[in-house]
Amino acid sequence: MMGTMSEEKAYNSPLFQGKIALITDHPFVNVDDFHSPDRLVAKYGAGKIIHANWPEEFIVERDTMIDTVTALAADSDVRALIINQAVEGSNIAVDKLRESRDDIFVVYCNTNEKRSEAVLRADLILSLDEIGMGSAMVKQAKKQGAKVFVHYSFPRHMAQLILSSRRDVIKQECINGGIVFVDATAPDPAAEASLSGIQQFFHEDVPKLVARYGEDTAFYSTNCAQQISLIKAVVDNHAIYPQPCCPSPFNGFPEALGIRTDGNYADVLYVINEACRIAAEKNMTDRLSTWPMSSSMMFTNAGAEYAIRWINNEVPKKGIDREVLEQCMNDYVEEVIGEASVVYMTPYSERGETYYHYIQVLMSYLDF
């Protein structure tokens, strides 16, 4: 359990010339992404941090995406661009940007573009270590006492190589750790399932599996829209929940546990402390866990802080200073939650080539 920080730690980051532009998801797509620049705006001011967002229907609004990027690049004071998430269409927009500006430091966060193409556009890419997370979450579940691991997904997700590969890693890690692996299918929120349908599914399916395998069963789902319902069902049945698909104290926990945030996405400690209190009340201490903060928020803030050092000529213009980047992440974690947390960084490799500017990240776990 994290302790309460009596006073927020002061920032010590450098000032910089020019502006940093941030493009995030529309709030209806991902609220963590949308609010990730809030801390930077409060710190440096709206005149230094320019925040725009992708259109809600970005899949069919590529021209709008291009217009968003080119409008930001038209301001000659913009020296860096942080994109979170780098959804499909980001590469096309950045290609247009590069036609007129080759002096902007571009950061992709959690890119959904083809990796071999994203590495050619962005100066820095920050992403979850999706494969490494598979192994990590099984080890975390075992630490929580899990004897069975249930993996919920659906055909659309399993058609994605990264997600199916992670499922295979989870299965093998379960075999290695003496844990029973259960490959389960849940409704697809983008297809046949309504929100009420998802809720009803987990309300009925989790108790059945707990009755079959026992309370020491860990449950995981690959989809953000399913996390609230799954957490509720896990708590109601005294099962185990190692992490959300996108690990964060804000992903599913406030709604599932009845924690009022009143739209405040900066007070992570409040959510953590409330989740710990409620978990204790429900006899769920150490059976719920996640990362100690939103990886999305960490990526936006650490990416911007690294970009500031790039603007200030404190890091190389080409390539990434790994130590400085790691310090940017660790500083942000400590500033937000008042305690250090371990950040694990691994460069991405593909077909025998390692891309040292594509950084995959894991974090140590927080038990509620």
Structural description of this entry:
By secondary structure, the protein is an alpha/beta fold. It folds into two domains: 19-129 and 294-367, 3-Layer(aba) Sandwich (Rossmann fold); 130-290, 3-Layer(aba) Sandwich (Rossmann fold), CATH 3.40.50. It is built from 14 helices and twelve strands. It has helices at 31-35, 38-44, 62-73, 90-100, 115-118, 130-143, 155-158, 161-177, 195-213, 227-236, 253-257, 268-281, 295-311, 322-337; strands spanning 19-24, 49-53, 78-84, 105-109, 124-128, 148-153, 180-185, 217-221, 289-290, 343-350, 353-363, 366-367. The strands form three sheets. The protein has a seven-stranded mixed sheet with strand order 2-1-3-4-5-11-10, sandwiched between helices. Strands 7-6-8 form a three-stranded parallel sheet, with helices on both faces. A hairpin with a 2-residue loop joins β10 and β11 (353-363).
**Spans where pLDDT lies below 50 across 5 or more residues:** 1-13
The CATH architecture of the largest domain can be named as 3-Layer(aba) Sandwich
Question: Taking strands numbered 1, 2, ... along the chain, how are they ordered across the largest sheet?
Answer: 2-1-3-4-5-11-10
Rg over CA atoms: 20 Å
Tally of contiguous helical segments: 14
- Would you tell me which CATH topology of the largest domain applies? Rossmann fold
Percentage of β-strand residues: 15-25%
SSE ordering: EHHEHEHEHEHEHHEHEHHHEHHEEE
Q: Fraction of residues in helices?
A: 40-55%
Domain count: 2
CATH class of the largest domain: Alpha Beta
Total strands: 12
Distance between the termini: 6 Å
Global mean pLDDT? 89
Structural class: alpha/beta
Largest sheet report: 7 strands, mixed
Principal-axis shape equals globular
